[in-house]
Amino acid sequence: MDARRDIAATDEDSEPVAPARGAKTPRTARGERTLRALLDAAAVEFGERGYHEGSISGITSRAGVALGSFYTYFDSKDAIFRALVTDMSARVRDHVAPALAAAPDALAAERAALEAFLAFASSHKEIYRIIDEAEFVDPDSFRAHYETTAQRIAARLAKGSESGAMRPGLGEVHAWAIMGMNVFLGLRYGVWGDGAASAEVAREANELIAQGIAARAAD
Amino acid sequence: MDARRDIAATDEDSEPVAPARGAKTPRTARGERTLRALLDAAAVEFGERGYHEGSISGITSRAGVALGSFYTYFDSKDAIFRALVTDMSARVRDHVAPALAAAPDALAAERAALEAFLAFASSHKEIYRIIDEAEFVDPDSFRAHYETTAQRIAARLAKGSESGAMRPGLGEVHAWAIMGMNVFLGLRYGVWGDGAASAEVAREANELIAQGIAARAAD
Amino acid sequence: MDARRDIAATDEDSEPVAPARGAKTPRTARGERTLRALLDAAAVEFGERGYHEGSISGITSRAGVALGSFYTYFDSKDAIFRALVTDMSARVRDHVAPALAAAPDALAAERAALEAFLAFASSHKEIYRIIDEAEFVDPDSFRAHYETTAQRIAARLAKGSESGAMRPGLGEVHAWAIMGMNVFLGLRYGVWGDGAASAEVAREANELIAQGIAARAAD
Amino acid sequence: MDARRDIAATDEDSEPVAPARGAKTPRTARGERTLRALLDAAAVEFGERGYHEGSISGITSRAGVALGSFYTYFDSKDAIFRALVTDMSARVRDHVAPALAAAPDALAAERAALEAFLAFASSHKEIYRIIDEAEFVDPDSFRAHYETTAQRIAARLAKGSESGAMRPGLGEVHAWAIMGMNVFLGLRYGVWGDGAASAEVAREANELIAQGIAARAAD
DNA sequence: AATGAATGAGAGTTCATTCAT
DNA sequence: TATGAATGAACTCTCATTCAT
User: Fold this and answer.
1) Which of A109, B167, B168, C182 could bond A103 through an S-S bridge, CB–CB 3.0 to 4.6 Å?
2) What are chain D's domains?
């Protein structure tokens, strides 16, 4: 119950929970509530037990509805997982966005993004797990999530070049490299760790991105 | 922890692929052959269908042995997967090692390692998949694989600092950052792509690692 | 211990065959019917083929339901066997009770009980088999059945002593002796035989219990 | 190991271990030893785990021979169990015989037999289990064991009548009744108990057999 | 819209038995 | 005689999905 709250509580206000890709559209307020309960319960179930170990009946019993009711809202186990990945993907983005907006310059933005992501990963391990497991359960969603993220990073790099804060010639490869770095640091220091070192980790990683690791003449 | 040590201990030099951790030891030549066939078949089965969709009977029929024979060599589906992850993990390392050894300096070594890894990922997509899926099937092996790899990178960074090719103060965070970059570039350009752009991708990524992306006074 | 109490508590008066200890409680009339069918089918299956040779699919096909339906009502093969032993145990008791109640005195009661038991054993051989096999499959139920039965006999002996029909000093040992005698005569003349000689067997056995086999001064 | 010794040690000398009904006849001394090891191991395996849970490989590994060797000596799992029941049956008889021979009169003989049996049951619970389980695994052996035993008791009763120590008219029914008492007292006070009360139990049971439980005029 | 019993394909696993060496 | 790898039938149990109520 606590866990559910933990996840569900995340961003109650951010977006009006889009009609959940993959879910059937409920026609009554009661249906609306049941759908939401199902989605929240699925986040807990899949987050705790994983896709294959998690079961529909686990979801419905957590949601407090009958087994059969599940199929009023989703066509299959896959469908709710897909809907969930989209949800979670948006949640990560929404969590990082404010930090990004507040950053004074392009390099600081990358640092702020990483720091926000580390904090998010450590406090929403279930979300991390769901997105990652999508690689095997729903490769399309997985790919879409990372390609979208990479594009967003690439756009920031382009702006950084324009503003003169970053050197020119940065593109997709650099975006993927930075994303990979962020994800693995999120795994190591967020999911496996407790997120305590977030600031220091972000500082070191940002220095790497900014200046590289080669010895400098000036050093 | 023991498992990790087990892997880390073999370290840099390629050994003759240990007798498959987790498998029962065959006592005859025929048994030896069957075990090998099973392991190879499992790599294909799990690589193609994933752990959960893959089945024991899929493995045995690919290996050309009877279903029951499986249990002469492995205690469970889990056991062979574990053995496989260890195997695959060693294979990645063994593939990268020569490129590393041949590099003229520390930075070139990182570039060579990435290039070798990209080539490997594109030609052994099933290995990539098996190691990654271990995150959900056998977290210990997964963690052991990445922690060992990170330690190896960290050791190289330390040597680079000593030799003066890299700046001082590089540690675990940088190792994980570089590993994350490599893995995601491996996914994007190796597994998803065809590995054709390996050299160019490696060059760009290496430039990022070496010099960073900040604009330089001299630029 | 609880299990024993569970049985002993119902005691002498026949109740409407409790809702099958160990089975999940059905919530619809259809479910009620399916549960009953499963229990009846299991009695036949285990009675004919024994616990180990008997199979779940044998039970469900006899009951006319799908294999999977079994697990809607029982957690395991063991669970239905346990439920069955409890059922059967109660059935034996219920069959003997009326004869006991109708007997004019304590010694006649023992004789009536044996006679009823012999008749029952010959017409319900599968029940005999199920209870007996419990010794190896579900020792707790087995023990509970015989300890409860022995207690019931001991209570009758105590009453017999009080009423002056039996000598004083009779206890647990005598109860177990009489029970063992009954069970073996049930096996020999009920299960193996056809129950035809019941009356004569009961007469001879009762004479043994009543007067013993030593030669008498008066003889 | 201790357990095996426990059983094997029983009556090393009594009979030259007949060619074990159901076993193939070994042609060498080595074979003789292997056969014996197999039989002893089977007694432990079946005694501890029961027939169905017990496995051939459990037997061979206890016996210290290879799995395949089993079939040099026995045609099937059933066959060794049959051989074992015959063995065990003889062992019970041999254990009781001396007590019987030493008894001063017919009634004392029955009492001595019961006392010896109780002691035996408490110190050889495995044997008790094997014989009893035969009811479901090898009904013929089971029946043979008890019919033979009953006949032996009946013969003693006949002699008792002749000698004047017992009343006339005793037959098969009485023999089965006495046997049933003994077996159940063996279960209750030997197998379930520790055999400590053997003498007192035998005394009470013998009084029942001898004098019955009816109140006597003289009382 | 909600319920929960019913379905049945399919999975992993066991093990008595065979047989080539 | 001894070995142990190989076999494959058979079993228990799971669970996504359907459907009558």
Assistant:
1) A109
2) 11-79 (1.10.10.60), 85-211 (1.10.357)
